[in-house]
Automatic annotation (TrEMBL), chain A:
Record-linked Pfam families: Strep_pep (PF14404)
InterPro entries noted in UniProt: GRASP_targ, Rbsml_synth_pep_Strp
Protein name (record): Putative ATP-grasp-modified RiPP
Lineage: Bacteria, Bacillati, Actinomycetota, Actinomycetes, Kitasatosporales
NCBIfam families documented for this protein: GRASP_targ
Organism: Streptomyces phyllanthi
Gene from which the chain derives: tgmA
UniProtKB/TrEMBL annotation, chain B:
GO biological process, one term: SOS response
Pfam families registered for this protein in UniProt: ATPgraspMvdD
MvdD-like pre-ATP grasp domain boundaries: 2-113
Protein name as it appears in the record: ATP-grasp ribosomal peptide maturase
InterPro entries associated with the record: GRASP_SAV_5884, MvdD-like_ATPgrasp
Amino acid sequence: MRPFTLNYAFPRPLPIVVTPYSFDESLQLNVLPDGRPAVTDRDLLLAAGTTTSTAGSQTHFDD
Amino acid sequence: MTVLILTSEEDVTADMVVARLHEAGAPVMRLDPADLPGKAVLSARYAHGDFEGHLSVNGRVLSMGGLRSVWVRRPGEPAAHAAHSSAWLTAETRQALFGMLYSGSTRWMNHPRNADRARLKPWQLRAAHLSGFAVPPTVFTTSPRLARQFAEEHREVVVKSASGPPPGDPTLALPTTLIGPDSDFSGVAAGPALLQRYIRKRADIRLTCVSTRLFAARKTAQPDQVDGRYGDTGHTWEAVSVPERVGKSVHEYVAMAGLAYAAFDFAEDEEGFWWFLECNQSGQFGFVELETGQPISEAVALWLAQRQAGRGQQWRGRR
């Protein structure tokens, strides 16, 4: 029998998020292609959605 | 003295704090337990009644004697990136890493022992009651009869997962859902169900607590919106002040839970009253800071780097 709570689960397409930044081991944070820390680009982070609560839900149980 | 951040490389919310620590000149080591063993190296020596421990990654070395604080953010599973990963290797690596970190004397945001308890939704509700929050009537049950009885009593109830969507399938969404007493409750026997009286809300509130500092944000809800995490309401998060009564309860809650950081979710009802929904001990804050400009990452960095704990001393993980 299917657990009751899972009756309310549904599939959803994952947004294709291309993050134009990569981890810099020396700085210990993600940087843009021009070398600036990704966190300096507020609009980019908001658009990427990687700081939202549902972003956490996909990979982690704390959101 | 170094701040140790346990998180994945992709965690740009952690970047916000790392950048603040860099600005303050505070030494930091960022390590993903998934990279141990392999990219990261660990050594802990217990001999002659003494203890020495070291971690190294990406050319940095951290001695346990020089550890100021640990921030458990979004760590991967220990050994997840190992060449021959296995459940056993994860367990062994977890023993080595956290056993070593527990052996030292440091401050935690948050201590894993406290975090484990704080994640438990039923415990959260009890702690919220004891802290003076208003909590919607809630039932956890594996009895279809009791579930139906609860729904008949409250008429409009929501069902939600206590632990989040099933792991391993990121395409599966499991939002909080409004149901009525005419639902088929037979499936409750197959797994614990969390049912809660529906609060008709006019806004979602996210209150982020960093030690003694509180940052509340409000987002107007659409009429009949149930789960604020799903769907675009067209509204954004805005900073709001914290009612004195709520602030007092937050401080009591985090003291009881032994948390240095917590993100509270409330539903603001049509009279403007805040109802406690849950407390995420490692809840996201990046989206709140980006939309409201509240200096949450700065508060986290300050707590992690500060020499003296002050009031936060109680959160060292002694509970």
